[in-house]
Hints:
There is one protein chain. The chain has 239 residues and is mainly α. The chain is built from ten helices and no strands. The protein is elongated. The two termini are 19 Å apart. Residues 1-12 and 228-239 have low confidence and may be disordered.
Amino acid sequence: xxxxxxxxxxxxxxxxxxxxxxxxxxxxxxxxxxxxxxxxxxxxxxxxxxxxxxxxxxxxxxxxxxxxxxxxxxxxxxxxxxxxxxxxxxxxxxxxxxxxxxxxxxxxxxxxxxxxxxxxxxxxxxxxxxxxxxxxxxxxxxxxxxxxxxxxxxxxxxxxxxxxxxxxxxxxxxxxxxxxxxxxxxxxxxxxxxxxxxxxxxxxxxxxxxxxxxxxxxxxxxxxxxxxxxxxxxxxxxx
Length: 239
């Protein structure tokens, strides 16, 4: 009986550590995506060979979908006892995470149009004025940007619900969880500015960067606070 209990604790701790590792992986892949793979496309200055753009786009798309899919994995790795107790919240989390993946796919479909424009602009230039080309570029870029910020908004909402789930289950310290929720809410406000053609106040996004480092390290070191409670005989007898 004791061995079974210890195995249960191990599984729960492994789940929390897996989420912590994947959160760090998500951040690392996001930085790689934004500052390495997308940079040659979004700031194209004729230095990157045209033939490489489609390859860069393909790798960037796969990375972006993986980053987005991790939000869904976070939910699926949550302790099953907590999922049973908060099934409605869990369902919302899964729906939002899935919608985030769809929005991410749409964003990169829009980005592919931009890459197509870049790869054909040389052929168009002799017969098309510079002002017309710039108008086309601006229009395509605007469509991609709208899809991008909508994708971020949905993914951030998914993360918001994830922290609500942790707070309701008392799975990490309340103060840390409340700070994380406030940080994600700030991110939603910042991204929401783009829907009104306003500039993003970057300072509001700073707390999210902090929590995206602190929370995973907490999970790696301490795990979920509710692990022992969920596996106690009294708690299991109530389900």
